[in-house]
């Protein structure tokens, strides 16, 4: 069983979901087809990090996201797409243009959306097409109100794909981070956005907060996109000039966004504060909304940087990266570090693990428990690559995960298409 994070906004009184709902430990919280009859039960469920079986819920989530995709392909106004993306989808049935009403404003180009939403091509091709759009936006020199609209559209499409295919998208992104330095800045920003959105959803933060966090994640390094790409392929330490740009990029990025026309103070503040380490010294409950979001982005930013390859160093395993990025001075994960580990599991999709059998495999999805992921074995007990990847149930005795494996120790060619077919 592969578990995916489930937003509490999908839970309603007297409305049954067509799949089972679990907590972070894999305990069944709500049976398939069971309606929630009492407000107290609803609030109890919404107070927990919730998960669903990917095989049971994926079709339902895809239908819930048909609203966004249909509107995009129909050249709906951007504001209308925003309403559809962040509005509660209730039963998961697609909302119609008539039910939402016309919101006015310019419509996005059909051609700009088609490749990312065309279900006739593979998810890998769709996601790569989307990442090309994000990369082009962040590298674009001339930015105006039209740029902001294109940015919002790109983030909306990315969120839709990541919600419909949560394990697959995370698998592709962590694999790219571990093996490639190409377009480092945009891929790093997108990975932060996907993880931040997932963790914030598990923490039951509001839709407005999740939206601001997602946009801030994509744009936090706007003022140093080219420099960040260069640093990823640079073996020498940063020069004094580069260090100055690194140290000032958060403030400069926020200033650039304000100059372009961003008026959301929360978005701007999260970008400005995402490297402010003083936020770690204040109890989470005492932070205002923007500071809380900035603190999470800072944790995720450090985590994703550590799992990413650079010319000057090899990537850490996600487990080691989580230990470095999420653990406080007392040796225990702080509140946000714990939420990240519970949401992604100890071994996120795309990372490599050793099994008790002696096999080496790659994680495809979070399992029923944080330390029991769905794994595809790549290297057999003999130490030789397997002809084809083989699924392993790591919850079974004798097949447990015994630890993480460094990327450099996996000398097997990965066929992403073949692996994604197993999820």
From TrEMBL:
This is Putative metal dependent phosphohydrolase. One of its GO terms (molecular function) is hydrolase activity. It comes from Leptothrix cholodnii (strain ATCC 51168 / LMG 8142 / SP-6) (Leptothrix discophora (strain SP-6)). Keywords: Hydrolase. It comes from the Bacteria.
């Amino acid at each position: 069983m592969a578990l995916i994070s489930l937003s509490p906004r999908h839970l309603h009184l007297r409305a049954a979901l067509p799949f089972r709902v679990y907590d972070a430990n894999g305990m069944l919280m709500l049976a398939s087809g069971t309606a929630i009859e009492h407000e107290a039960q609803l609030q109890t469920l919404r107070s927990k990090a919730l998960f669903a079986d990917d095989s049971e819920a994926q079709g339902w989530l895809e239908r819930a996201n048909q609203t966004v995709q249909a509107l995009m392909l129909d050249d709906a106004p951007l504001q209308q797409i925003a309403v559809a993306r962040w509005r509660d989808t209730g039963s998961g049935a697609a909302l119609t243009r008539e039910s939402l009403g016309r919101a006015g404003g310019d419509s996005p180009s059909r051609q700009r959306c088609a490749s990312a939403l065309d279900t006739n091509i593979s998810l890998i091709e769709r996601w790569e097409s989307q990442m090309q759009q994000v990369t082009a936006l962040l590298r674009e020199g001339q930015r105006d109100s039209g740029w902001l609209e294109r940015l919002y559209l790109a983030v909306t499409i990315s969120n839709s794909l990541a919600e419909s295919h949560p394990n697959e998208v995370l698998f592709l992104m962590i694999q790219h981070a571990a093996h490639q330095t190409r377009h480092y800045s945009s891929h790093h920003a997108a990975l932060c956005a996907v993880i931040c959105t997932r963790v914030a959803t598990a923490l039951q933060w509001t839709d407005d907060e999740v939206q601001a966090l997602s946009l801030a994640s994509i744009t936090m390094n706007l003022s140093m996109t080219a420099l960040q790409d260069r640093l990823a392929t640079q073996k020498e330490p940063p020069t004094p000039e580069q260090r100055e740009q690194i140290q000032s990029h958060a403030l400069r990025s926020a200033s650039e966004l304000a100059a372009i026309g961003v008026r959301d103070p929360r978005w701007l503040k999260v970008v400005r504060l995402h490297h402010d380490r003083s936020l770690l010294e204040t109890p989470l409950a005492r932070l205002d909304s923007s500071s809380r979001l900035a603190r999470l982005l800072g944790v995720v930013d450090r985590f994703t940087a550590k799992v990413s390859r650079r010319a000057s160093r090899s990537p850490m395993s996600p487990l080691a990266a989580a230990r470095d990025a999420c653990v406080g001075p007392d040796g225990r994960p702080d509140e946000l570090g714990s939420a990240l580990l519970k949401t992604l599991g100890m071994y996120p999709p795309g990372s490599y693990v050793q099994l008790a059998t002696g096999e080496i495999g790659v994680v495809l999805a979070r399992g029923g428990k944080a330390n029991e992921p769905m794994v595809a074995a790549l290297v057999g007990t003999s130490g030789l690559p397997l002809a084809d990847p083989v699924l392993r149930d790591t919850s079974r005795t004798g097949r447990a995960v015994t630890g993480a494996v460094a990327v450099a120790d996996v000398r097997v060619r990965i066929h992403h298409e073949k692996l994604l077919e197993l999820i």
